[in-house]
């Protein structure tokens, strides 16, 4: 077989599943030389990559239109590239079962911002909301994200009637789904593309967390056009490889105000005449967003 290009649709350790331009599917491994050239702090080939391949051997990765990476949770590995060449970065969050920290959502949104990928916040498991205080909390979170310019969907993977608008946003695009384990990423994808029958997991009754059912990232075609990448749930989504003042640029509401700070490299932590801190105190920037910024700065400093 002569040299050709293909799309990586599944990445498990050092094995990859490829789809060729004619629609055929094949398995591949990395050429030895490529493994050697690979730096140890990241993974060389990810779902969504277009690769050059010959005889089941991946020779090279074609230039990426974009990619998404986070701080790796694995010892000895600094960062983890999650996907490449996507149109929409979707964070699937829940108010409970499992609880999704706002720092998770905001770490994800800032990362998508850093890599110039449009982002969408999806609150799933709407059917579990009972008390008025739950609905108030959801309304508050939705208002927060919309007020800083993000698109938000509120859905239940178990109620297909709630998915219409999400489907429209995903139609014809390649979306990447991230979220804590158990948030319902695979269940949502099953509801959007019923033929797939992806494995879904139980929620631990004791911890109200998921059980890491999805173990590798995989790209699936959608029946209404487009693709979706289902990914393993992660506990944290922390940006990496940026300074605090850069991170602030990836909070759109801070980016807007930072020209009014006294210092042009203001980190909005404790500098005098900081327009961002003033806006937080005046209630013009959501305090929850500023708090997650502080958490993420902390994590950048620790890495
Ligand atoms: N009540 C309710 N349960 C849901 C909803 N969406 C998913 N679930 C349940 O949540 C559990 C976990 O769902 P999964 O789809 O496996 O979650 P995941 O995000 O793919 O988890 P990982 O693969 O571990 O990252 C399953 O028991 C689902 O039935 C929803 O909208 N409402
Ligand atoms: Mg899953
Ligand atoms: Zn400032």
How does this model look, in words?
There is one protein chain. With 303 residues, this protein is α/β, with parallel strands linked by helices. It is 28% helix and 23% strand. A five-stranded mixed barrel has the order 1-2-3-5-4. Helix 2 (102-114) packs across helix 9. The model has no long low-confidence stretch (mean pLDDT 93). Residues 124-125, 127-128, 156-158, 179, 181-187, 200-203, 210-214, 232-233 line the site of guanosine-5'-triphosphate. The site of zinc ion has 8 residues, from helix 8.
The top-level CATH class of the largest domain is Alpha Beta
Helix content: 25-40%
Largest sheet: 5 strands, mixed, barrel
**CATH homologous superfamily of the largest domain, by name?**
P-loop containing nucleotide triphosphate hydrolases
Q: What compounds sit in this structure?
A: guanosine-5'-triphosphate, magnesium ion, zinc ion
Order of helices and strands: EEEHEEEEEHEHEHEHEEHHHH
**Fold-level CATH name of the largest domain:** Rossmann fold
N-end to C-end Cα span: 45 Å
Give a brief rundown of this model.
By secondary structure, this protein is α/β, with parallel strands linked by helices.
Which features would summarize this protein structure in a list?
single chain, 303 residues, alpha/beta, OB fold (Dihydrolipoamide Acetyltransferase, E2P), Rossmann fold, 3 domains, 5-stranded mixed barrel, two-stranded antiparallel ribbon, binds guanosine-5'-triphosphate, binds zinc ion
Tell me the layout of helices and strands.
Blueprint: E1 4-12, E2 15-19, E3 25-30, H1 32-37, E4 50-54, E5 57-61, E6 67-71, E7 79-84, E8 88-93, H2 102-114, E9 119-123, H3 132-147, E10 151-154, H4 164-170, E11 174-178, H5 185-192, E12 217-221, E13 227-230, H6 244-249, H7 252-257, H8 275-281, H9 287-302
Parallel strand pairs: 3-5, 8-9, 8-11, 9-10, 11-13
Antiparallel strand pairs: 1-2, 1-4, 1-12, 2-3, 4-5, 6-7, 12-13
The structure holds guanosine-5'-triphosphate, magnesium ion (MG) and zinc ion.
